[in-house]
Amino acid sequence: MTIAVTGATGHLGRLVISALKKHAAVVALARDPAKGADLGVAVRRFDYDTPETLPEALAGIDKLLLISGNELGKRATQHRAVIAAAKKAGVELIAYTSLLRADTTPLDLGPEHAATETALKASGVPFVILRNGWYTENYTASIPVALKNGAFIGSARDGRIASAARADYAEAAVVVLTGEGHAGRTYELAGDTAYTLAELAAELSRQSGKTIPYSDLPPAEFAKALEGAGLPPVWAEAYASMDVAAAKGALFDDGHVLSRLIGRPTTPLGDTIRQILAV
């Protein structure tokens, strides 16, 4: 069995490949194959913007993990091209990393994920939908700036966030790609334990030995701060809108589907903070 992974050089893709290559032959798919030279698997060029080349890149692939792209506004079209190419190449199963409650979420990211899910269901190719909740690293990546500035900022108010580490979601992808009985299933995936950003800041304070309060900002001000920290404007706006949605419960889930799927508890927030501080 040969399994291919799109977005192979990204954070999630690398984690999936590292775990997956212990179970199957793996092909990494990347826009720039040179960036995947250290993955230890075969790497093929895979550029969403040249859809005519995609079927050839998927030749000989039995299963495909389609990790959602990062070009907001273009993803639904890009994903449809990948699904069409997979069907043409004879791929037997597509697993797709979607979004928690993609069909009902208030998050601005929802429509592109929902459109991809619709395309998958219409394709005739067996599929598994992994509706990934929030990655804890999306927040802990801000820890160095928070330590420098003496505050952790956001716009989530007291919304509870059931996040999990990327490694947890990567393990779930490996489970469905290497196991049986997952075709046709949609999994709502999130962390076992939810927290507010104030609680995250309190845990950061405890572990770092510094007082790092949570500062809740108006969304526009938060987006401006994110842009000032180096995020592209479109993603700064997206992250700010996600916090607004989090305040309304969009990132909360207590179904514990992820931990049941991977057969262990999800990674606690404190562990991920500890890893960041160790670096």
From TrEMBL:
Gene3D superfamilies: NAD(P)-binding Rossmann-like Domain (3.40.50.720), UDP-galactose 4-epimerase, domain 1 (3.90.25.10). This is SDR family oxidoreductase. It comes from the Bacteria. InterPro entries: NAD(P)-bd_dom, NAD(P)-bd_dom_sf, NmrA-type_oxidoreductase. It comes from Rhizomicrobium electricum. Residues 7-177 form the NAD(P)-binding domain. Pfam families: NAD_binding_10.
